[in-house]
Amino acid sequence: MKNALYDKEVTCPLCKNIFRTKKVRTSSTRIEKRDTDFCTYYTSENPMFYGVFVCPMCGYAAMESTFHEINGAGKKAIEENITRRWTQRSFGGERTIQEAIEAYKLALLCGQLINQKKGVIGNICLRIAWLYRYANDPKETDFLKHAVRCFEQAFVSEPLPIGNLDEVTLMYLIGEIHRLIGNYEEAIEWFSKAVGNPAIKTKKKIDTLAREQWRLAKESFKNKKNQEQAG
Q1: Which of 81, 223, 224, 226 has a Cα at 20 to 30 A from 9?
Q2: Is residue 154 in a domain?
């Protein structure tokens, strides 16, 4: 579905190189289903594959939404830790899952070097986890763990919303990631917070999801306790 892709021209804020990177036409996206942590599956080209811009000249990478948010200290950190070791290569073509993972991991490294907000880092880690899920790779769990730690830190220390995650949705997402990695007590706690938040009344889908996943977390926690006692 190559006609679903188009070239976007981008100017690197670090080295001023002008490069092209692929994007998916919004009109071409076709959603098949969504997982309970919002991981989306497409019957069309997956726009998430192209969510990170990578400068082929200097190696600076970031999510599209934060690509131009870099200050002088950040530029210096990228130049010293990425650019000096960078072998020029382009991520501007059609991306495989592995190439998308590489792009997101580079964005994660750059984000850590320039001290991006924990919410941004959490979003990158969550998307890496989803990419590994598409590939049926157990490394998914490692990045879910990184993501939930970042989101918890962001929840208490950063202004909301975080990306497109408002307070209630973020509470739910933290709970669901904890449930997916087997932290049932933490999941129950966060689902309880979400359901108890008055704002959830305006979000029927999140309310329904939170209550159902809360029930599943309680069942899993009970089963885990029973197994421990039996063992």
Answers
A1: 81
A2: yes
Q: What is the per-residue pLDDT across 3-57, written as a single tens digit (0 to 9) for each?
A: 899 999 999 999 999 999 999 999 999 999 999 999 999 999 999 999 999 999 9
Query: Residue 220 burial (CB < 10 Å; 0-12/13-18/19+)?
Result: middle
157 is in which domain, residue-wise?
2-165
Please report whether residue 208 resides in a domain: no
**Number of folded domains in the chain?**
1
pTM of the predicted protein model: 0.96
In a domain, 68, yes or no: yes
| DSSP result, 163-198 | TTB-HHHHHHHHHHHHHHTT-HHHHHHHHHHHHHSG
Show the tokens assigned to 130: 């989803």
Under 8 Å between Cβ of 191 and 180 = no
Q: Which residues contact 194 (CB under 8 A, 6 or more apart)?
A: 168, 171, 172, 175, 200, 206, 210
Residue 2 has pLDDT above 80, yes or no: no
| Strand bridging mode 31-34 / 18-24 | unpaired
